[in-house]
Amino acid sequence: MEKRGGFSTKIGVLMATVGSAVGLGNIWRFPYETGRNGGAAFLLVYLVCIFIIGFPVVMAEFVIGRRAKANPVGAFKKLAPNTKWHWVGYMGVLAGLLILGYYSVVAGWTMEYIFKALSLELENKSAADYTSMFETFTSNPILPIIWTTLVMIMSHLIVKKGIKGGIEKASRIMMPLLFLLMLILAVHSILLPGSIKGIEFFFNPDFSKLTAESVLTALGHAFFSLSLGMGCLITYSSYFKSNIDLPKTAVQVTLIDTLVAVTAGVIIFPTVFAFNMQPEAGPGLVYMVLPNVFQQMPGSFIWSTMFYILLFLAALTSLMSLHEVVTSYIHERYSISRLNSSRLVTGLVLFLGVFCSWSFGIMKNVTLLSMNFFEWLEYLTASVLLPLGGMLISIFVAWYLDKKIVFDELSNDGKVKVKGFKIYIFILRYVAPLCIFAVFVTSLVK
Ligand code: PHE
């Protein structure tokens, strides 16, 4: 087998890990969930979930990954030999594959919209035109699949090159560009006349709109957004060197991921309100509502092109982290070369992707318990596998793993100071698993 690679620089570690966390979750899903769940109050609950539950689990995945230096299944086998814990790893790899199935389809849509924006197709239309444009495109049996294939090939070309020359390099180019585009769009959006209503909606909480269900949505979304509960961070941290400060990296990733979600809100809500549109549009928000908002601005095609490029970059860096999880498992477990493992994953994902894409067209009405294939994959991963995985990971680190191992990893064998270790273990033992359990049960019941 080839030598196991790794990240070469601290900034590479940060860019790649942030690249995984920041994705469609932040820019596509977060704004529409916030819009649907009443704005600022939802934001507040989301922030609590991120910092009280998400952040400790990020560190837990880091501890497992760097200690074991293996894919999620291999990691549990190493740290807990002769137990069933490696099933958590299998669950993670499966979740990765299933998320890839629908994530690659939505990532493909962003490419279509980049070209729509560039070719001025998004100009001078009515609100109804944008809706039918989106529906006509997503229900096409071939075109979205071509985009999905293209996105997966790009991800494959990066992943096959390994960590240092592939994922690290790509992240170091794409992430700064993403931050720059975000900043420009956010400033532009705040400067729009009438933006203040959007800012108010986003930052002035109205707790009467908050339901028990929105609390659960917030927690589930915190997991999805931080790439938690399926071994993605285990896989990435298995490539961290021993000098990487795990708590510091966890703080940075959590903060930046949150900042990007908030910035996405700052870009979207003021614009939506400035042009008197409704923020509750749901998943179509960035494809059906935003083009209508953009077209009313001077220089509209520049803003829309920039926005969809931003969305594409965010999606691709997350996609490749998912791709890496499954690839590293196949590569290490079956001693298949990285190249062939990555090819295999690409093929499997495209197979799933076809059915996900058709769920918006010819297979729209093929449902089981009133959910189509796309909705099933989303539900199984975001509402079942991720929370369950996150809960088991926190239990594993807090209850099973020797506390000395946990401390040694967090402190780099005593070289860096760790504050609040006892509180950390307490949260990981009780607070995180119990809260996740509540979410998990409620979402299953629903
Ligand atoms: N965190 C990514 C996003 O917000 C999605 C993701 C989930 C990536 C799980 C990897 C693992 O879009």
Protein model, in words:
With 446 residues, the chain is mainly α. 76% of the residues lie in helices and 0% in strands. It contains 18 helices and no strands. Helix 1 crosses helix 14. The longest helix has 35 residues. The protein is globular and about 60 Å long. The termini are far apart. The mean pLDDT is 92. Bound molecules: phenylalanine. The site of phenylalanine (PHE) has 15 residues, from helix 1, helix 2, helix 10 and helix 14.
Strand content: under 5%
Q: Write the element-wise H/E pattern from the N-terminal end onward.
A: HHHHHHHHHHHHHHHHHH
Count the strands?
0
Helical segment count? 18
Rg, alpha carbons: 21 Å
Q: Summarize model confidence as the mean pLDDT.
A: 92
Question: Fraction of residues in helices?
Answer: over 70%
Chemical compounds bound to the protein: phenylalanine
- Uncertain segments of ≥5 residues (pLDDT<50)? none
Q: Report, as a whole number of angstroms, the end-to-end distance.
A: 46 Å
- Alpha-beta classification: mainly alpha
Shape: globular
How is the biggest beta sheet arranged? none
Features:
mainly alpha, 18 helices, 446 residues, binds phenylalanine
Question: What's the short story on this structure?
Answer:
The chain is mostly helical. It has helices at 10-21, 24-36, 40-68, 72-79, 86-118, 127-139, 143-159, 163-190, 196-203, 212-225, 232-237, 246-274, 285-295, 300-334, 338-358, 373-400, 403-410, 421-445.
